[in-house]
Amino acid sequence: MEKRNERQVILFPLPLQGCINPILQLAKILFSRGFSITIIHTRFNAPESSNHPLFTFLQIPDGLSETETQSRDVLLQLTLLNNNCENPFRECLAKLIKPNSDSGTEEGRISCLIDDSGWVFTQDVAESFSLPRFVLCAYKFSFFLGHLLVPQLRREGFLPFPDSEAEDLVPVFPPLRKKDLSRIMGTTAQSEPLDSYLHKILETTKPASGLIVMSCEELDQDSLATSNKVFTFPIFPIGPSHIHDVPASSSSLFEPDQSCIPWLDKHETRSVIYVSLGSIVTLSESEFLEIACGLRNTNQSFLWVVRPGSVHGKDWIESLPLGFMESLEGKGKIVRWAPQLDVLAHKATGGFLTHNGWNSTLESICEGVPMICLPFVWDQLLNARFITDVWRIGIHLEGRIERREIERAVIRLMAELEGEEIQERIQVLKDEDLCIIWIESFNGEE
Ligand code: UDX
């Protein structure tokens, strides 16, 4: 471990699994370069501090009721969190900054705040303390740039598209298709709050000191090259965060089922399809049953993560037909949460049926695991298009959650020539140097 440089970085993750993982990974990278780390976090989805004994964790109240924490409306949750957290965050930051300014010494001096673009009040707070703020972009950078254009497209009358199922490309947002953007925008009822939130994200990101991006030239070349049309500050593409050489520790909000690994050990190389839809996606009961039957009909081994509560109206997997697990004769395993990085790195894992959250997508690329794309919302639709239409390292289900479609896609990926070709292409992408070490020059100041 390198010597502490006696500078402190404060990080404030958005309380969603897909945002907590990259920010804690970034914290580990910065710690390994000598920074002291303080994480301010909400009570909702609080990270497990005991997994990171070298960091200081400070919890602030978030004002979410029990019902609000269980809502499936992420936009509503983010709006409430932004409304409720400003004062507690300001007070917490004031306490951290005050002792240092009084002492007038360098010791523990706070270099900067790093938080998620989804926090729209932190820029003002940071400015009031003259603290540089860096924004962490947990999406593919081309999505980050593109999604900020949506309110403008709507204002100018380009949206909504007359045909919400149109297959042609959105000119300002390639390789997204019009039908994808229609899904991203959601219903008309959501358009006003979504546009207003996106507008605030843009306006509170522009004055920041810089943007840290979980991507790299190889995956985001065009958008990185054109970003100076939107932002004047420096952009730091750090590559997939988990490939930096920092000690592993879990930032999972759920307890990973470690029995996955000995189960995989018993399987042949690249013979298992791993299925996980991340931490937010939910399914109707009939969609869940279609996936179950599709997987069973492939006769391939599968490891499937079903989060408790992710099937509407059900606790877990009780709606599976009687005798379903027995009928698999050991070929299927269902868990509540998996140690995903270890599963993807396991030699038995040959494919990943994924919702294409950006973390899962990067993790799969870094482990050279081809994908079956089943995106549901938001950036997942763009990530899936890059997987299938640009890098050609996966198969798209086009939203068809039907047993025959799932069975066919798994067979194509795991047992046919098409799958071998996809495997070769992802290996080439994996072998590119997907990481830009900007961190050596980062001192957390403008
Ligand atoms: C959310 C959004 O849904 C996604 O679109 C956006 O890109 C990031 O924020 P999430 O749905 O949780 O993220 O998906 P993803 O980005 O893939 O992150 C999930 C993380 O949880 C990954 O780092 C993955 O390794 C981890 N995970 C998932 C586990 O550790 N175990 C599991 O069983 C499933």
Q: Which tags fit this structure?
A:
binds uridine-5'-diphosphate-xylopyranose; 14% strand; Rossmann fold; alpha/beta; 446 residues
CATH architect. name of the largest domain: 3-Layer(aba) Sandwich
Query: What amount of the residues lies in strands?
Result: 5-15%
Spans of at least 5 consecutive residues whose pLDDT stays below 50 are 436-440
The coarse overall form would be globular
CATH class of the largest domain: Alpha Beta
Total strands: 13
The largest pleated sheet is described as: 7 strands, parallel
Separation of termini?
A: 26 Å
What would a concise description of this structure say?
Keywords: Glycosyltransferase, Transferase. This protein is α/β, with parallel strands linked by helices.
Describe this structure in words.
Belongs to the UDP-glycosyltransferase family. This is UDP-glycosyltransferase 76C1. Pfam families: UDPGT. Keywords: Glycosyltransferase, Transferase. The chain is of the alpha/beta class. It has helices spanning 17-32, 66-69, 74-103, 122-128, 141-147, 150-155, 178-185, 188-205, 217-226, 260-265, 285-298, 324-327, 340-345, 358-366, 379-390, 403-415, 417-431; strands at residues 7-12, 36-42, 56-60, 109-116, 133-137, 210-213, 235-237, 272-276, 301-305, 332-335, 349-354, 371-373, 394-396. A seven-stranded parallel beta sheet has the order 3-2-1-4-5-6-7, sandwiched between helices. Strands 10-9-8-11-12-13 form a six-stranded parallel beta sheet, sandwiched between helices. Helix 14 links the parallel strand 11 (349-354) and strand 12. Residues 436-440 have low confidence and may be disordered. Bound molecules: uridine-5'-diphosphate-xylopyranose (UDX). Residues 16-19, 21, 138-139, 252, 256, 276, 278-280, 305, 337-338, 340-341, 357-360, 363, 378-380 line the site of uridine-5'-diphosphate-xylopyranose. The site of uridine-5'-diphosphate-xylopyranose has 26 residues, from helix 1, helix 13, helix 14 and helix 15.
